[in-house]
Amino acid sequence: MPKHTSEQIASVASSLMPNFIPKDETIKSLSFAFTLDGINYEVLFEKDHRDAWHLISQNHPDKAV
Q: Where are the domains of the chain?
C-alpha cells in the first residue's frame, strides 16, 4: 500500500476543497473524505476571519497523518 506524504495529501485535499464549500456562509468548518491510490483520507478545513479556508487536519482510518 503506497504511503503518501502530508504534502501530497494536503495538495489533493486543497484541490478538491472548492467542491465542498458550503453555500451557507456562516459555516466555519468543513470536512470530507477522498481516496488516493486505494487509501481513504479524511480532511478538515476551517475558515479564518478573512473567509479563507485552511487545512486543519488530515487522517486516514489507521492513524493521524
A: 6-64
